[in-house]
Design the sequence.
């Protein structure tokens, strides 16, 4: 162990204390949400819930899973699963193909095609023309949402840069063995880019899972994803005119919906974290 | 047969002068491209879907900017069916009856970004410095995983949590857990409906942004700090540098390129405040709070009737405001990128 002088020791202590404090502050709203979802109505009304649940009940959670609110909640949940699964698959296929093609040295018009893609990062048509275009392109149903929100230029560039960094020797060996372009992509490039692929899969999937505004605007009620329903539950709870007839607080219902909506992220994300901490640094995108 | 002619041509190429050779290359350009494409056709097939996507969803909407110059006033007509109005919408916004609201939104966008930059920029850097001090790998990765997490949670959830914890509404006795804490600390009067008061909006927006993004934002700085060689610190210590001096003379210079790029990019995006968080924080709260909260993008959505079902009050005005903003924003981004390339040889594009 190296010897620390006084100032280093003090700084280290401050670092430990503040990092711990920040991590606890980050964690607090999530723990509080679980507690609110599980607390009794009186305790919530009187503001007794600060950290742990008071007067535990499971009715609010159960009402979303099997009870009165379950039908709408599960429709929205399966909609979100649909958007996330097909949307991410669609985005990934397009991005991988584009990134691979753009990483080929012999691509004709490589600069021009690259510019067409990069330009969309500088300039976008704006919200109103985008909305008009979505209407004209029939982005008003489930599949419309899938194809209308396909690809982000940034993710293509991220992946292309990663592909560019892969040594050509293995590829040349594969070509000598008679591999065609598709086989080079699937057998050489994809297995060697796991961390970049994991990173952009995570980005795309999160965009789909968390998407709110355009889904709310473009598709109708039964096709609305979780985030839209979540917002609706919140507005019901804070609306003064509605008197709750449930055996639990209206607020427990909001928090229960919040907790159920982020469970998949909290479960999957720590496993992908090691990839994206690496993958993000692949950035420094350069044209 | 074809082979021999090609061989003949190849042989004769050697006899050509420099200029003739260039001419020959120019003449056979398209033929060579075509050969190239035929040889590795799969990569061109792979490009088709993505080019179609960019055409239909990124370039095609650009034509829609025309509505800013037209009397297009409801979404059920096509852009072609509306008449040209010239610069009417721009005049109406910039010096006409809407000027107050438009410039207010413009100012709010700028103010919110500037505050966000001033308070939000240093915190991920400090956090990264602290993370680098934690040598216990397990503890460090656990705290990192936790602090990155809010970045992956939806805006709807984040804004719901903010709204509920700060003020739960009138139909419940308890005003909300953070509301009570702040009242106990004497920051606010007990039971203040914080979300509906314009004077709290900026603090709520920026502090929650820091809570949400500081952890994730520290990743890039953390990587920069970890790339600094430990021998630099050893050398500084031999020269008698204490911890603060080491940060001042070793760590900060070592991460200077990263700091520069991040700062420049942040300044470049100063006019692009996302609409979702602002809309969701102010949704259903009435006009009062908008005094400080309305930014260009939310103003556009409201004018264009895309947020509430109340209907559009001026689609062409909305498009004009948006266009004005996106042109200034584009020049800021390009300018920032240009400067970044100049100072640090690194740029986003």
Sequence:
């Amino acid at each position: 162990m190296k010897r620390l002088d006084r100032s280093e020791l003090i700084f280290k202590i401050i670092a430990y204390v503040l990092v711990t404090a920040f991590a606890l502050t980050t964690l607090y709203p999530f723990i509080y949400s679980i507690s609110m979802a599980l607390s009794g109505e009186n305790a919530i009304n009187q503001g007794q819930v600060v950290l742990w649940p008071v007067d535990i009940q499971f009715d609010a959670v159960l009402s979303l899973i099997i009870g009165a609110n379950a039908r709408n909640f599960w429709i929205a949940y399966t909609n979100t699963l649909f958007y996330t699964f097909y949307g991410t698959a669609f985005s990934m296929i397009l991005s991988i193909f584009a990134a691979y093609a753009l990483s080929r040295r012999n691509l004709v018009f490589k600069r021009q095609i690259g510019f067409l893609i990069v330009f969309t990062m500088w300039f976008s048509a704006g919200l109103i023309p985008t909305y008009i275009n979505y209407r004209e392109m029939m982005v008003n149903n489930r599949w419309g949402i899938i194809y209308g929100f396909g690809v982000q230029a940034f993710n293509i560039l991220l992946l292309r840069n990663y592909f560019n960094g892969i040594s050509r020797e293995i590829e040349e060996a594969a070509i000598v063995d008679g591999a065609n372009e598709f086989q080079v992509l699937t057998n050489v490039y994809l297995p060697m880019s796991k961390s970049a692929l994991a990173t952009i899969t995570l980005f795309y999937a999160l965009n789909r899972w968390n998407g709110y505004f355009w889904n709310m605007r473009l598709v109708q009620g039964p096709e609305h994803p979780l985030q839209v329903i979540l917002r609706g539950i919140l507005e019901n709870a804070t609306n003064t005119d509605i008197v709750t007839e449930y055996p639990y607080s209206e607020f427990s219902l909001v928090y229960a919906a919040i907790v159920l909506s982020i469970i998949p992220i909290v479960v999957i994300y720590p496993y992908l974290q090691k990839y994206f901490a690496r993958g993000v640094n692949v950035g420094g995108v350069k044209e | 047969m074809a082979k021999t002619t090609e061989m003949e041509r190849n042989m004769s190429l050697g006899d050509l002068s420099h200029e003739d050779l260039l001419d020959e290359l120019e003449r056979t350009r398209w033929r060579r491209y075509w050969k190239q494409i035929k040889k590795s056709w799969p990569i061109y097939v792979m490009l088709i879907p993505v080019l179609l996507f960019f055409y239909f969803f990124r370039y095609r909407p650009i034509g829609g900017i025309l509505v800013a110059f037209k009397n297009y006033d409801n979404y059920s007509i096509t852009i072609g069916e509306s008449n040209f109005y010239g610069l009417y919408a721009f005049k109406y916004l910039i010096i006409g009856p809407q000027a107050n609201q438009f410039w207010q939104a413009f100012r709010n966008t700028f103010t919110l970004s500037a505050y966000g930059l001033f308070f939000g920029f240093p915190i991920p850097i400090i956090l990264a410095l602290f993370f680098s001090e934690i040598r216990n790998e397990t503890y460090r990765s656990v705290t990192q995983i936790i602090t990155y997490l809010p970045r992956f949670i939806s805006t709807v959830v984040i804004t719901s949590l903010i709204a509920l914890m700060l003020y739960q509404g009138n139909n419940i006795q308890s005003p909300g857990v953070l509301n009570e804490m702040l009242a106990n600390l004497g920051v606010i009067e007990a039971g203040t409906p914080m979300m509906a008061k314009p004077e709290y909006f900026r603090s709520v927006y920026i502090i929650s942004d820091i809570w949400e993004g500081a952890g994730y934002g520290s990743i890039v700085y953390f990587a920069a700090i970890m790339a600094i060689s430990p021998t630099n610190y050893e050398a500084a210590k031999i020269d008698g540098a204490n911890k603060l001096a080491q940060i001042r003379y070793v760590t900060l210079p070592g991460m200077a390129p990263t700091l520069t790029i991040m700062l420049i990019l942040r300044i470049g995006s100063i006019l692009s405040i996302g609409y979702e968080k602002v809309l969701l924080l102010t949704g259903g709260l009435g006009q009062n709070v908008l005094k400080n909260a309305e930014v260009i993008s939310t103003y556009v959505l409201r004018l264009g009737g895309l947020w509430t079902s109340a209907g559009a009050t001026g689609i062409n005005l909305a498009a004009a405001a948006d266009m004005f903003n996106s042109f200034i924003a584009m020049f800021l981004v390009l300018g920032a990128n240009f400067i970044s390339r100049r100072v640090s040889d690194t740029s986003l594009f």
Remarks:
- Chain B touches chain A through 100 residues (CB under 8 Å).
- The two ends of chain B are 49 Å apart (CA to CA).
- The mean pLDDT of chain B is 84.
- Residues 88-344 of chain B form a domain with the MetI-like fold fold (CATH 1.10.3720.10).
